[in-house]
DNA sequence: TTGTAAGCGTTATCAG
DNA sequence: CTGATAACGCTTACAA
């Protein structure tokens, strides 16, 4: 491996001068600078980040923990975070939590152990009351899902408002028996409960009675589970004319499950999702959905994290992404 | 920050003994080991990876460069690579190349600069003849797409065989005017040309004449482009009864585009894709596709890369993933 | 403007 | 079995 010493010898200067050139510091004469740069080019020298890190105590790496990178929503989000971090000179190492509290705790420990400069955690199961969350002052930004009650910087989804708008839209389209397909964790404050609240709020506002028979819970927020829920929902004697799916991925499963049963969307049943994944526009029928501003979220999360790195004691903030309701075929 | 020294002082032993305990090395008496472990627990000590890296010269990080992490295919692949690397004690840092040769070259340089232990590169544009590819002995494994003629370890897709099987399947279903929707880079040896060859081979084997009017090229392998191609393809006087799409993502666009034009799949036109992304099963209609063994590919890539790290001089190998043809609604 | 010395936290080596 | 010492490549502080 080519080191600074090698370059220094080649250029006939000291290690320190090479360091100064590499870091664009003032106080190096032009001829010397040129000689050093030439030596660097010739030798193919590259700074050793580990060595630099050892001195500075920073790795330049941000951890990003998501349930599953393969899911379109998190892939999409990750892409934005990577871009945004790159702009601020950080690299992103991705961790998969498997959508389980244990995985989420582990991601924190891991990020810590690897001395990442901070962690953006998209937690979906971890509870604000989890004892393993003992605050260590390590920079963590919670992204999008659970609510941790002011304990961490938090970039939230417009869970309640968005679902309320989507549900109201279905009502406006004439739906009267609107099912919701959502996760089974209906306690606590999390993405599932918040969106459920939004659904209830829209019903209440429009004077519709919530019907327990219209609540379809699933264990995992996957396409498979959405499909299975649609099968249950399309069973005899339900008379459902609208479906609010907790995520677009679930909605995609619902669309598929309704097709399995020969039900037409939007003819027989209208469907809305949440997230606006890139695929939503290309589904058949195209999916109406709540579109939070993903880029905004990624920017905010990275901004908060870098802010916290430099000012660890700062008060935590809570930010909710703006959203639009994108109306497509599935609800019109 | 808690260091080994702190732990050593706390346990009343030397730094070296702590190191031995941390690394599970033999030659530490049980009582001392216990004392040290207790001191580690109390102090919250974590090894400093940078320091270890500085000594060992290895970072424990593998770079993974893909065109776009948000695309389902690459997200899926990345998930497998991350899992497989984790099993071998490596972390994965993801780089996005934007599906451009410049981005791919940059990913190599970047991986180098950051002293990642190696790079898995899913190149789609970089040419085997690119002068910037001057061999430096840095461990690189090419994944899935371009063919680099023995210059690198290469885990290839079954491009030709897979597309041939898919096309033959359409013919067996009675299709006679089979269009192909593929990229515009029809020169050189790459994913587009290889799959086109497979398409031609199937036609030849079944005695069908290739018709230039049935070749629809697109600039980027996206859903949008697939949709636009479907619109062209469904124009007046084409009489197309089958479509081979170069990837599932493109196929999803094609399905959407055909729906736009009121054509029914498989009633009017049959469609097959390539990749078997998780969404394929949930499209409406569900998509018939070539399913390469993604896990196998990820395993092989990581295995080759770690192999090359320990034996840099070894001959390069070329491996092609096994595949299955998954027949679903879109072609039956 | 350039160079020298010390040390970041860890581990390999070798002595006790 | 345990410990002292010297690196790994770089940067900070200071001296020339």
UniProtKB/TrEMBL annotation, chains A, B:
One Gene Ontology molecular-function label: transcription cis-regulatory region binding
Domain HTH lacI-type, residue spans: 2-56
Record key words, sorted: DNA-binding, Transcription, Transcription regulation
SUPFAM superfamilies: lambda repressor-like DNA-binding domains, Periplasmic binding protein-like I
The keyword NAD is assigned to this record: no
PANTHER family linked: HTH-TYPE TRANSCRIPTIONAL REGULATOR GALS, LACI-RELATED TRANSCRIPTIONAL REPRESSOR
Name of this chain's protein: LacI family transcriptional regulator
Natural source organism: Nonomuraea polychroma
Lineage, broadest ranks: Bacteria, Bacillati, Actinomycetota, Actinomycetes, Streptosporangiales
């Amino acid at each position: 491996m080519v080191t600074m010493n090698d370059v220094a010898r080649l250029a006939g200067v000291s290690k320190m001068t090479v360091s100064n050139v590499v870091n664009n510091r003032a106080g190096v004469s032009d001829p010397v600078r040129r000689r050093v740069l030439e030596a660097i080019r010739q030798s193919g020298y590259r700074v050793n980040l580990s060595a630099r890190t050892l001195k500075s105590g920073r790795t330049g790496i941000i951890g990003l923990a998501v349930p599953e990178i393969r899911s379109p929503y998190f892939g999409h989000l990750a892409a934005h975070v990577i871009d945004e971090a790159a702009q601020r000179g950080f690299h992103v190492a991705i961790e998969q939590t498997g959508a389980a509290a244990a995985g989420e705790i582990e991601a924190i420990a891991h990020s810590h152990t690897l001395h990442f400069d901070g962690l953006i955690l998209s937690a979906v199961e971890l509870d604000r009351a989890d004892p393993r969350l003992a605050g260590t002052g390590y920079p963590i930004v919670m992204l999008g899902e659970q609510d941790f009650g002011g304990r961490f910087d938090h970039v939230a989804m417009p869970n309640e408002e968005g679902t309320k708008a989507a549900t109201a839209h279905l009502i406006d389209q004439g739906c009267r028996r609107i099912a919701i397909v959502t996760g089974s964790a209906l306690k606590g404050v999390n993405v599932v409960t918040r969106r459920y609240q939004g659904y209830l709020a829209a019903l209440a506002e429009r004077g519709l009675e919530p019907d327990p028979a219209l609540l379809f819970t699933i264990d995992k927020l996957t396409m498979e589970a959405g499909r299975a829920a649609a099968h249950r929902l399309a069973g005899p004697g339900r008379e459902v004319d609208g479906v609010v799916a907790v995520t677009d991925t679930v909605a995609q499963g619902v669309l598929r499950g309704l097709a399995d049963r020969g039900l037409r969307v939007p003819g027989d049943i209208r469907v809305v999702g949440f997230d606006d994944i890139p695929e939503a526009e290309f589904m058949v029928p195209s999916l109406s959905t709540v579109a939070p501003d993903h880029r905004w979220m990624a920017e905010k999360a990275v901004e908060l994290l870098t802010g916290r790195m430099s000012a660890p004691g700062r008060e935590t903030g809570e930010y909710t992404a703006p959203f639009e309701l994108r109306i497509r075929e599935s609800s019109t």
